[in-house]
Amino acid sequence: MSALVLVNPAVPFARGARLDAAVAAMLAGLTPPLVGEPLMLARWRRGPEWSVRSLLALCCVDPSRVAPEVLAAHVALAEERHGLKRVAARDLLAAQRSLILALVTPWIEAHSA
User: Fold this and answer.
1) pTM over 0.85
2) Domain ranges for the chain
């Protein structure tokens, strides 16, 4: 039997934690409604494998340590999404904007009092 337990989710940030500059730049660039979709589609023009590798570079301390079968599974999923670019871009950006709202709202509430 296999199982996965998430014990330290990325959201919300721990008090005092800093957002990585590269991640912040990517989120800031993709978030605005009239800018996000064209930028995401431009990234996808580079291909599914490039997309996966660039995202792993943001998420992993050492992306070269990601097991080849895990990388292949992510590339396969990206290839499936690649055929549905417009729908996937819309949905991924909606999820990203929701995540940003979840991150920013507590900060705004804490600093508006």
Assistant:
1) no
2) 21-111
